[in-house]
Model the fold of this input.
Amino acid sequence: MSVKFIGYIGFNDHSEIHAATRSRALDKTYVEAAAKAQEEGGFDRVLIPFGSASPESQIVAAHAAAITTRLGFLVAHRPGFTQPTLAARQLATLDQLSGGRVAVHIITGGADEEMARDGDHSIKADRYARTDEYVALLKQEWTAAGPFDHDGRFYHLKGAFSAIKPDNLPVFFGGASPEAIDVAGRHADVYALWGETHDQVREIVARVRTSAARYNRRPGFSLSLRPVIADTEEAAWKRADEIVEQVRAARAAAGLPLTDHQPPNDGSRRLLETVKSAPRNGRLWTAVAALTGAQGNSTGLVGTPEQVADAMLDYYDLGIDHFLIRGFEPLADSIAYGRDLIPLVREKVAAREATREVALAS
Done:
C-alpha cells in the first residue's frame, strides 16, 4: 500500500490563529504561492474548500491547475445547488483541462444554518439521501456510452448524456453518521476522517469497510491532521501551546465561544468526546478542537519530524493511505512539511512495505 499526501489551499492566508494579512476574500497571489509551494514540496493533491460565503472552489482549482504541472486537486463540492448532470460536465471538463489531476470531495453539509444561506432548508437525513442519488448520477454521466433516463426521488432526467468524460476522477467522502457511512460504502473511492485516537480510527475504518463490502468495494482512507513539528519535542509542544493561546485570543476577540459547543455533525461530536479525556493523547493533540468545537480539521500530531512520521505510520498500519495535512501558518507550514515530513514518511512507508514483502516471500 502506498501513501499519498493532500495539502490545502485556502483562499488567503487566514487561519485560526490570525486574520488574513490582506483583507481580500480571494488573494490571487497567495493561491498561486500555495499551489507552487505544495507542488514543489511533493504533495499529491491539495484540497480546495467549499463554504456558503467563500469563493468558488472549481474556479480556484482551474486557476491553480493552470500554473502547475503535477499537483492534483481535491475540489470540495456540495450537492444540491447544481444539477448533477451539469456538475458532472464541469468536473470532467476541469479534469480534462488539468490533464487528469482532479478528484472531488463531496460535502453533504451538516449545519442547517449554513445550508439555509444558499436557500437549502432540507433536513440532514434528506441531504444524505439526495447525495446518494446525486453521486450515482455523477458517475453515470461519467461512464454512460449513450443517453439515459432517471426518475428518482430528487432528480428526474430525460436523455441525460455527457460527451466529455474524466480520465479518472476519484470521489472522496466523509461523515460519521449512519447515513453517511451507508452512502460512503456505495460511492467513496476514498473515505475522509479527522485525526482521532487509534481505537476510533480502527472502529470507523471497520464500519466503512463493512458498508463498502456490501457493494464489493474497498475504499482508501484519508486522515486529516494539523502537524506541529520542530527540531526538538520540547520546542514542538511549546509551539503547540502557543497556538492554543493564539486560537483562544483570536476567538475571544471575535466573540466566538470557547466552551459548551454543540456541533451539528457526528464527526465533531466524536472529536469532542476525545477532548474530554485529555488535550494530549500520545502524539495526538486535541486542544484546538476543544476551543473551536471541533470545527473541521482541528487535531494534530506534535513532535519532531521523526516522531510525527512514526505516529503517522501507526495510522498507516490501521489502513490510512492518504494524509491531509495543513498548518496554522498555512504557507510556511506547507513548505516545512514538504521539506521535513513528507520525504521521511514516504521513506518509512517504503521500508515498511519492503519488510512486509520479504516476510510474505519467506
Observations:
- The domain at 4-227+301-361 is CATH 3.20.20.30 (TIM Barrel).
